[in-house]
C-alpha cells in the first residue's frame, strides 16, 4: 500500500545526494557500493583533471564550509503574510521577508531552472556590520533569534572590520553559497546581474567564474553615478555591474543578441505622438512644433535629432535616403513631379529601384520630392525604424535622481541609496528580449527597486513578468528618518515602496494599461521565513537522548497547534514542488473544510484536508475522491491511527487515478 501513498518530503533537496545521483546516471562505472569512486572518476577524465597541487582558482578560509552551506537541506518554510500583502488572490508577484540563504533553498523545488533574470545589489564590503547570519549549521535558528522570533536577546550581528584577518573571507563566505543556489534557479538563457564596488569586484569576478563558469561571463559594466569631492586621491563615483549567463553556448546556438533603441528615440516618439494629436493631425503644424521641441532638447544625439519631420500619417521621418543606385548602372526612367508635372532630375547612377518598385514607394508615401523638378527626390527613413544598437559597457546615471524619486514616493530621508528602477528596467528589457512572461528574482531586495522596475516594464509593453523579492528584516536605525516614519525594518520600506509604486504606475499609465490584453499586476503575495510547522521534521542528527524521547512523544500531533491551515498548505505545496502563487481557495466538501488548488484551466489539481483534530469518515473521504482532483493531500494524523481508513482512501484514489499524499 505504501507504493500507492506518497509522503511529502521533510526538507529541501539534498544537493550532495542529487549530484551523486547525476554522476551515477552519467558515469555509472565511477560508483562503487553506492559511493562515488573519486579515483575512478579521475581515471575516466584522464587529461581533463587539474593537477591536485598546482591549480588556478580563488581560495579563502571557510570556502569548503560555505560550499557545504549551499548543499545542506533545510526544513524551513514560508508563512503567508496576508496582512502585508496586496491583491493576494490575483497577483503573481511575491515578496519574502527572511534570510535569503534559507529562502533560496526553499525556492529550489519549484523554481529550479525557471528564473529568467536575477538582479542583486548585495551589501558592499565596507568594514561595517554584517546583518546576514553566517552560522550555517544553525542558519534558521540564527535568523529566528535575530528577528526575535525565538527569544528576546535581539539580533546577532558580526562585525567585519578591515583590521580583521578574514575581512574579505567573511564577505565571500556570505556570497558564495547564495550564488551557488542562485545558479540552479536560472533558465538556460537566464542572466544574473550583480552590483558591486571596487572593494570586492576582483574577488567576486573569480567567484562567479567558478560558480557560473568563466565562459559564461558577459561583461563588467561600469555604472558612473556621481563624484566624491572628499576623496583623497581619485574621485571614485562608479560601481560595477557584473553580468553572467547560465549558458552562453545556448544563447549563441539560438543566435540571441542584446539590442536596444538609441538613446532619446522613445522620448522623441512620445513627444511626436502628443504633438500630432494636439495639432489636429496637421502634418505642417506638427512638423513646426516638433522642430521647436527638438531645438529645446540639447541632450539628444545627432542620430535622433536629424529626424525633423512628421508626415501625413503622424510618423517622424527624415528625407535623407539616396535613391541612386550604389556604384552606378541603375535603371533610368522618367518620374513626374507631383506638383509641376515635369520629369524630375535623375540620379547620375540611375534609380535604386525598378520603375514599378519606385512607383510603389511613391504611392506608399516613402519618397519626398523637392519644391520643383530640379531636385532629386529622397527616400524617407523613419525614427521608429531606426536600427537598434549594442549596449555599451559604460553608462552614466546619477544616483541622486533615483533617491529623489523614492523620496517623493515614500518620504524623504527613509532610504539613502536606492538602485535606479529605470536603469534596472533597461537591463531587464535588454536581457529579457521578447520574453514578457519572465520571472525576475532579487534576493537582496533593499528598497524594492527591482519589483518597481518589473511593474514599470509591464505597464509599458503589456508584459506578464513576475517578480520575486527577498529581503532580510534588517532593523532601521533607532533615530533614523525611516524609524520616525514608522518603518521598523528595511523589509517594511520595500513592501510600502512596491505598494505605492504599483498604484502610481497604474494611475500614470491607465490609458496605456487599459489597451493591453492582460490585467496590470500591481500586487504581491507577502511571506515570512519560518521554522517548519511539523514537529516530526525538526529532528536533527545530533539531538540528545532526552530530547529524542520528547520528540517522539510530540509526534502524536505532527502539526504545530498554532499553525493555520494556510500555513500548513503553503509548506506542503512548497515541499511538493508547487509555486508561491497557486490559485488556492477554501471549500466545504462532504462536510469537511478543505483547500482547493486549481490549475490554469480551472480544474482542481490539489484537494487538501489538513485538520488533524477531526477524523473524517469513509463517506466523507469518498466525497473528496468524487471531486476527481489530480492529487489529494491528507495530514497523517487526521487518520488518528486508523490504518483501515487510510487503506480504503488509498484504494479509492487508485481506482480514480488520483495521487494520495500525506504529510
Describe this structure as you would to a colleague.
The protein is α/β, with parallel strands linked by helices and 663 residues long. Helix content is 35%, strand content 17%. The strands form 4 sheets. A 10-stranded mixed beta sheet has the order 4-17-5-16-15-6-7-9-8-14. It is globular, with a radius of gyration of 31 Å. About 3% of the residues have low confidence.
Overview features:
alpha/beta, 10-stranded mixed beta sheet, 3 domains, 22 helices, 6-stranded mixed beta sheet, transferase, about 675 residues, about 15% strand, Rossmann fold
Total helices: the number is 22
Query: How many separate structural domains?
Result: 3
Amount of beta strand: 15-25%
Mean pLDDT: 87
Gyration radius, rounded: 31 Å
- Major pleated sheet: 10 strands, mixed
CATH fold descriptor of the largest domain = Rossmann fold
Share of helical residues: 25-40%
Terminal residue distance: 16 Å
- The SS-based structural class is alpha/beta
CATH architecture annotation name of the largest domain: 3-Layer(aba) Sandwich
Instruction: Outline the low-pLDDT stretches.
Output: 151-157, 540-545, 547-556
Can you tell me the CATH superfamily of the largest domain? Vaccinia Virus protein VP39
Amino acid at each position: 500500500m505504501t507504493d500507492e501513498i506518497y509522503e511529502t518530503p521533510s526538507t529541501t533537496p539534498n544537493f550532495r545526494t542529487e549530484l551523486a545521483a547525476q554522476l551515477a546516471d552519467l558515469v555509472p562505472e565511477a560508483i562503487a557500493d553506492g559511493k562515488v569512486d573519486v579515483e575512478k572518476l579521475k581515471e575516466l577524465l584522464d587529461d581533463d583533471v587539474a593537477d591536485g597541487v598546482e591549480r588556478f582558482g580563488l581560495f579563502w578560509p571557510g570556502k569548503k564550509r560555505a560550499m557545504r552551506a549551499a548543499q545542506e537541506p533545510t526544513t524551513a518554510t514560508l508563512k503567508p503574510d496576508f496582512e502585508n500583502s496586496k491583491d493576494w488572490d490575483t497577483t503573481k508577484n511575491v515578496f519574502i521577508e527572511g534570510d535569503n540563504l534559507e529562502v533560496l533553498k526553499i525556492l529550489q523545488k519549484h523554481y529550479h531552472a525557471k528564473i529568467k533574470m536575477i538582479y542583486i545589489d548585495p551589501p558592499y564590503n565596507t568594514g561595517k556590520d554584517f546583518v546576514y547570519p553566517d552560522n550555517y549549521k544553525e542558519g534558521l535558528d540564527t535568523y529566528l533569534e535575530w528577528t526575535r522570533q525565538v527569544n528576546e536577546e535581539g539580533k546577532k550581528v558580526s562585525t567585519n572590520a578591515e583590521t580583521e584577518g578574514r575581512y574579505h573571507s567573511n564577505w565571500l563566505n556570505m556570497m558564495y553559497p547564495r550564488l551557488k543556489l542562485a545558479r540552479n534557479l536560472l533558465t538556460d538563457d537566464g542572466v544574473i546581474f550583480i552590483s558591486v564596488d571596487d572593494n570586492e569586484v576582483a574577488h567576486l569576478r573569480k567567484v562567479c567564474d567558478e560558480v557560473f563558469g568563466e565562459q559564461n561571463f558577459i561583461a563588467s559594466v561600469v555604472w558612473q553615478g556621481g563624484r566624491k569631492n572628499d576623496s583623497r586621491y581619485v574621485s571614485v563615483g562608479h560601481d560595477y555591474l557584473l553580468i553572467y549567463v547560465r549558458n552562453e553556448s545556448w544563447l549563441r546556438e539560438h543566435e540571441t543578441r542584446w539590442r536596444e533603441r538609441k538613446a532619446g528615440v522613445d522620448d522623441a516618439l512620445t513627444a511626436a505622438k502628443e504633438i500630432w494629436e494636439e495639432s489636429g493631425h496637421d502634418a505642417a503644424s506638427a512638423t513646426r512644433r516638433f522642430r521647436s521641441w527638438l531645438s529645446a532638447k540639447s541632450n539628444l544625439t545627432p542620430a535622433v535629432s536629424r529626424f525633423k519631420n512628421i508626415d501625413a500619417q503622424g510618423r517622424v521621418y527624415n528625407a535623407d535616403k539616396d535613391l541612386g543606385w550604389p556604384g552606378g548602372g541603375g535603371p533610368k526612367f522618367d518620374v513626374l513631379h507631383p506638383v509641376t508635372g515635369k520629369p524630375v532630375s535623375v540620379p547620375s547612377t540611375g534609380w535604386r529601384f525598378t520603375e514599378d518598385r519606385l512607383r510603389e514607394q511613391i504611392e506608399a508615401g516613402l519618397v519626398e520630392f523637392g519644391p520643383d523638378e530640379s531636385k532629386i527626390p529622397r527616400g524617407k527613413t523613419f525614427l521608429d525604424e531606426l536600427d537598434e544598437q549594442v549596449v555599451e559597457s559604460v553608462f552614466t546615471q546619477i544616483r541622486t535622481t533615483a533617491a529623489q524619486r523614492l523620496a517623493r514616493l515614500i518620504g524623504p530621508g527613509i532610504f539613502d541609496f536606492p538602485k535606479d528602477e529605470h536603469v534596472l528596467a533597461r537591463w531587464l528589457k535588454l536581457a529579457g528580449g521578447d520574453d514578457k512572461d519572465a520571472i525576475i528574482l532579487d534576493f537582496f531586495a533593499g528598497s524594492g527597486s527591482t519589483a518597481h522596475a518589473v511593474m514599470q516594464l509591464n505597464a509599458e509593453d503589456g508584459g506578464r513578468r513576475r517578480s520575486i523579492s527577498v529581503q532580510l528584516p534588517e532593523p532601521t536605525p533607532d533615530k533614523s528618518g525611516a524609524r520616525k516614519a514608522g518603518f521598523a525594518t528595511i523589509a517594511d520600506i520595500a513592501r510600502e515602496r512596491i505598494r505605492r509604486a504599483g498604484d502610481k504606475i497604474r494611475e500614470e499609465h491607465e490609458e496605456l494599461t487599459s489597451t493591453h490584453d492582460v490585467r496590470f499586476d500591481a500586487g504581491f503575495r507577502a511571506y515570512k521565513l519560518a521554522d517548519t510547522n511539523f514537529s516530526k521534521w525538526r529532528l536533527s542528527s545530533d539531538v540528545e537522548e532526552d530530547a529524542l524521547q520528547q520528540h517522539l512523544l510530540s509526534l502524536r500531533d505532527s502539526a504545530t497547534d498554532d499553525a493555520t491551515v494556510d500555513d500548513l498548505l503553503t509548506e506542503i505545496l512548497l515541499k511538493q514542488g508547487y509555486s508561491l502563487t497557486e490559485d488556492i481557495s477554501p471549500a466545504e466538501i462532504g462536510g469537511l473544510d478543505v483547500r482547493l488548488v486549481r490549475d490554469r484551466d480551472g480544474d482542481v489539481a490539489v484537494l487538501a484536508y489538513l485538520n488533524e483534530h477531526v477524523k473524517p469518515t469513509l463517506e466523507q473521504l469518498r466525497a473528496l475522491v468524487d471531486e476527481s482532483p489530480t492529487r489529494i493531500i491528507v495530514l497523517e494524523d487526521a487518520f488518528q491511527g486508523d490504518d483501515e481508513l487510510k487503506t480504503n482512501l488509498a484504494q479509492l484514489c487508485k481506482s480514480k487515478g488520483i495521487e494520495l499524499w500525506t504529510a
